[in-house]
Design brief:
The protein is an alpha/beta fold and about 325 residues long. The protein contains ten helices and seven strands. It has three domains: about 100 residues; about 40 residues; about 170 residues, 2-Layer Sandwich (Endonuclease, Chain A), CATH 3.30.870. The protein has a seven-stranded mixed beta sheet with strand order 1-7-6-5-2-3-4, with helices on both faces. Helix 1 packs antiparallel against helix 2, helix 5 packs parallel to helix 6 and helix 8 runs antiparallel to helix 9. The longest helix has about 50 residues. The protein is rod-shaped.
């Protein structure tokens, strides 16, 4: 603790030490000049009597001292000018930033600035580092969005839910049952469906979803799909299904990806790797890309059919409607 204390004490003394050193140097130069003038006057005019030699040396020394102070004053004025100009520039930037911030909603940004300054001045160092990383992540994401798109590794459930909260007209989604395997029974899916229900009930948003069925799906997979279709239909979501082979030739190779189009203006795309695991998520507001996905969704929607019209699902849906439990994962019907 002693080292920081000494450092703190020594810090404020540096300007005073520099000022004392400069003053001493000025006085030394003055004395030297005055002494040189006095010696020269006595050497050149040794026979002249009177105090004028001393007066001349004092006058020359005083002149040199005044010149030094004037030069120092001019230098300080220049430094002050630079500081003032920098401060005015900073004020201009701050005013510009404030005007830009005013365009945003009045709740989030001021709260972010207020609490960010608080959190970096309290708690342990790891909290500060975490806060800085979160701020940098958010800043980077906002910078990406200035280009109308952003990407992150894996699946971003926060983006999915926030986009759903902001939807006002329509939500059109294409879901492959391979990528969605297990998603609809997860906690993020519960929050996602809850927000979709609010969008339908509170804002009258039209939600359409097409499930793409992979060829050769087993009974358990089809039973799970039937249950998901039934649940989402009961929430007011328009659900259809389509076999992958039925639309593969229409869409072309490499186009079987999960995507959602919000308000026909912004897309959310999930990309899978060779193991069919989610590798990245992209949000995009580029009109060309969004229009491409709208056309793709319309193609898939037109080729799809209602779940009850799909032979592979109709019997399972009838069982669900009659209250018959749909058996999956080898469930024993006689088990208690």
């Amino acid at each position: 603790m002693s080292a920081p204390t000494n450092s703190f004490r020594n810090g404020p003394q540096r300007p005073d030490s520099d000022a004392a050193r400069q003053l001493t140097l000025k006085l030394l130069v003055t004395v030297v000049v005055g002494g040189v003038v006095y010696v020269l006057t006595n050497v050149l005019l040794p026979k002249e009597e009177g105090p004028w030699q001393l007066v001349l040396s004092v006058l020359c020394g005083g002149t040199v001292l005044i010149v030094q102070f004037m030069a120092s004053f001019v230098n300080q004025l220049g430094e002050l000018k630079d500081v003032v100009e920098k401060r005015f520039a900073d004020i201009g930037e701050a005013t510009k930033l404030f005007n830009e911030v005013e365009k945003l909603r009045g709740d989030g940004v001021p709260r972010l600035a207020e609490h960010a300054t608080k959190v970096v001045s309290m708690g342990p160092d790891i909290l500060h580092e975490f806060a800085h990383e979160e701020i940098n992540r958010l800043a980077g994401q906002m910078e990406e969005l200035t280009k109308l798109s952003a990407e992150c590794p894996g699946e971003n459930h926060d983006w999915l839910i926030n986009l759903t909260k902001g939807t006002r007209e329509s939500l059109d989604a294409v879901s492959t049952t391979v990528v969605d395997d297990g998603f609809w029974t997860s906690e993020p899916a519960g929050r996602y469906l809850t927000e979709q229900g609010r969008a339908i009930d509170e804002r009258r948003v039209t939600i359409r979803r097409v499930f793409i069925m992979k060829e050769g799906q087993d009974h358990d997979s089809l039973a799970s799909l039937a249950a998901v279709c039934k649940e989402q239909g009961e929430r007011g979501i328009e659900v259809r299904v389509v076999r992958q082979e039925r639309i593969a030739r229409r869409l072309g190779p490499g186009t079987m990806i999960d995507f959602i189009v919000f308000d026909r203006a912004m897309s959310y795309e999930i990309k899978a790797d060779q193991r069919e695991a989610i590798s990245s998520t992209t949000v995009n507001a580029n009109p060309d890309r969004v229009e491409t996905l709208i056309r793709r969704f319309n193609t898939v929607w037109d080729a799809a059919r209602k779940p009850e019209d799909e032979p592979a699902l109709s019997g399972l849906l009838d069982d669900l409607a009659d209250g018959v439990p749909v058996l999956t994962n080898g469930t024993d019907p006689d088990a208690v």
